[in-house]
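Notes to self, Sulfotransferase domain-containing protein:
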Amino acid sequence: MIAGNPSVVYIREPFNVSHPPGIGISSARFDHWYTYISDENADCFYRKIERTLNFSYGLGAELREEKRSKNLYKISREFLAFNKYKILGKRPLLKDPLALLSAEWLASKFDMDVVVLIRHPAAFASSLKQKGWEFSFSNFLDQDELMRDHLYPFEAALKSYANGDYDIIDQASLLWKVLHHMIQKYQETHGDWLFVRHEDVSEQPLLVFQDIFNYLNLEFTEKNSQVIKEYSSVSNPVEGTSDVTHTLRRNSKDNIKSWKNKLTTTEIERIRTQVEAVSCNFYADEDWQ
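result:
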């Protein structure tokens, strides 16, 4: 929705370990899901991320990477597009939940305007359950600086989950708790960032997106309004079909608590018990009803 503004260019998940953008778009590669970048390890990443945000396309690297497939059409299209973005002074939109733990470093080094999206723990868990996405907590434990700086309160639990046999509901609960513990820390230290609950966007998409556009100093046009209405309309399905998991059109209001139909009562109670110490800062009793 934000990239619907003509001055913005969407860069999708450069921190994604298994499906990163082409190396011409982003030459940064990461060994861990939710990589933590700080000044201590920044030398490995700074220039590569800077090139992406400056729309400096890595033509030589992409040609070497694509040598076998010889997909010259894709390469030339991306190369020309990046040069056009640079000439026109386009604004990069880096959308990546996997960059959450590096948000502080990214904001400080590249003067980013940060929008943090918060999601209900039951909705998060139901999404992981539906997709069968399990998580290895060694991704956190293997990052010494991350554990030292931020995740030391969870060290025992992370080690237990890394070595034990926990189902996807337990994994989702701990993962949500860790990530939103970080979001809570950000809220306490970054009053200049915008924090938005997914449920509030879904309930009042036009109003909340106007706030987001204002925060980002972007014009909110009638076209933006129409697209948001189209993608959140009550005439849309509540969720995508099983073969199209990333369908964007949703009946956004009815989708808010679709997790109630995907999780058992026992699972919901288990999630709340495990996350309550953190979730109480974002969600009240009525948000669980």
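- The radius of gyration is 20 Å.
- Residues 199 and 256 are 6 Å apart (CA to CA).
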